Each structure stands twice: as structure tokens, then as C-alpha cells.
From TrEMBL:
InterPro entries: RHH_8, Ribbon_hlx_hlx. PANTHER family: BLL4998 PROTEIN (PTHR36215). CDD domains: RHH_NikR_HicB-like. It comes from Methylobacterium isbiliense. This is CopG family transcriptional regulator. It comes from the Bacteria.
């Protein structure tokens, strides 16, 4: 039976909360569609609208990702990754569209020695100390 279970909502660590402002008329349209059963709730409507726009611009996104050499999806950097980059004298240029994470056991000085630049379109999860150490390298 567990094979037929589908995850309907992302787990808390798999998403990022955002806030938007809508005009009253637009919000009224959303609420009407929810009330009439087209969507489960406002969030469902907004997620669907965003996914539709992402699909609509899929080809342009693919070209941009390829042109800018951006990694797509989830990218995790652990202590060993950063130590290897530092020891090889080849600092990392992190470019991710999605989620980039730097392990919680990475000290700020190692991050600074191993990472030359960070550009994340989406979210960067790292300790506050590592983010502070890389502040001048985060775009």
C-alpha cells in the first residue's frame, strides 16, 4: 500500500517561504477559484501559477543555465569538498539554480579559503558564520 502514497506537500526543508502582495481584485479571483474547487487553497493556486510560468519559459531557462554554467537542482558542499578545493589551490565558484547547502560542520575560515564566489538563484543554506565569512563573495 505504501507504493501508492504520493507526497502532496514539500517537507519543511524542501521549500522556502515567500510573501507576495496581490491587489484585491486578483485576490478575489483566486478566492473564487478556490471556492469553486479548482484549487485546494490559495497556496495551491500560487504554486500552480508559478509552475505554469516556469514551464512556459522552460526553453529560455535551459539556454540560460547552459550559457551561464549554472548547476540545476540541489547541490551540497561538505567539509571534504571544501578541503579538497582548498588543498588543490582551486577555489570553488558556486553557481546554483535551486538550493545550495554548505554543511554545518564547515568552519568560516575553511569556507573563505575554499570558495571564491557564490551565486545562487533560489536559496543558500549555510550557518550564519559561514554566510558572514562569504558576504563579500555572495551575489
Amino acid at each position: 500500500m505504501s507504493g501508492s502514497v504520493h507526497e502532496l506537500r514539500p517537507r519543511p526543508g524542501d521549500s522556502e517561504k515567500i510573501t507576495i502582495n496581490l491587489g484585491y481584485v486578483d485576490l478575489g479571483h483566486v478566492d473564487l477559484l478556490v471556492r469553486d474547487g479548482f484549487y485546494a487553497n490559495r497556496t495551491d493556486f500560487i504554486r500552480t501559477a508559478i509552475r505554469n510560468q516556469i514551464d512556459r519559459h522552460d526553453e529560455a531557462t535551459r539556454r540560460s543555465v547552459a550559457r551561464k554554467a549554472v548547476e540545476l537542482g540541489l547541490r551540497h558542499f561538505d567539509r571534504a569538498d571544501l578541503e579538497a578545493a582548498r588543498d588543490a589551490g582551486q577555489p570553488l565558484h558556486i553557481r546554483v539554480l535551486g538550493l545550495a547547502t554548505i554543511a554545518s560542520d564547515v568552519p568560516p575560515d575553511l569556507a573563505r579559503d575554499a570558495i571564491a564566489s557564490v551565486e545562487v538563484l533560489g536559496a543558500l543554506h549555510a550557518s550564519p558564520a559561514v554566510k558572514a565569512a562569504l558576504a563579500d563573495r555572495i551575489r
